């Protein structure tokens, strides 16, 4: 990194000084953004899996309740049939 100072003189005697500061380019900004995006994706995936597992549990409970209602209806039908015979 080198700093440069340029001085110019106009014909009327005035001087103008320009300083050039050479700095190394910045790097690594993309890594921070990438990590933030990765964390956001992981959090979203966690909540999505939680939602899906609760949906599966709810569907399983509804299916089980429907099977029990069907079995109970079958029992009532069998009892009614025996009462008629």
Describe what you observe in this structure.
The longest helix is centred in the middle third of the chain and has 56 residues, at 29-84. By secondary structure, the chain is of the alpha+beta class. It starts with a strand and ends with a helix. The protein has a two-stranded antiparallel ribbon with strand order 1-2. The mean pLDDT is 82. The chain has one helix spanning 29-84, and strands spanning 3-9, 15-21. The protein is rod-shaped, with a radius of gyration of 39 Å. It has a domain at 26-84.
For this entry, give a set of tags.
85 residues, alpha+beta, 16% strand, rod-shaped
Uncertain segments are none
Strand order of the largest sheet: 1-2
Largest sheet: 2 strands, antiparallel
Q: What is the chain-wise order of helices and strands?
A: EEH
State the share of residues found in helices, binned by percent.
Answer: 55-70%
Number of helical elements: 1
What is the strand content? 15-25%
Overall radius of gyration: 39 Å
Compute the number of strand runs: 2
Overall outline: rod-shaped
Provide the structure class. alpha+beta
Round the mean pLDDT to the nearest integer and report it. Answer: 82
Span from first to last CA? 105 Å
């Amino acid at each position: 990194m080198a700093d440069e100072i340029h001085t110019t003189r106009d014909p009327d005697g005035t001087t103008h000084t320009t300083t050039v500061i050479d700095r190394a380019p910045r790097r690594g900004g993309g890594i921070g953004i990438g990590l933030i995006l990765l964390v956001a994706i992981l959090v979203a995936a966690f909540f999505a899996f939680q939602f899906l597992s609760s949906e599966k549990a709810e569907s399983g409970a509804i299916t089980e309740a429907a099977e029990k209602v069907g079995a109970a209806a079958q029992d009532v039908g069998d009892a009614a049939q025996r009462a008629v015979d």
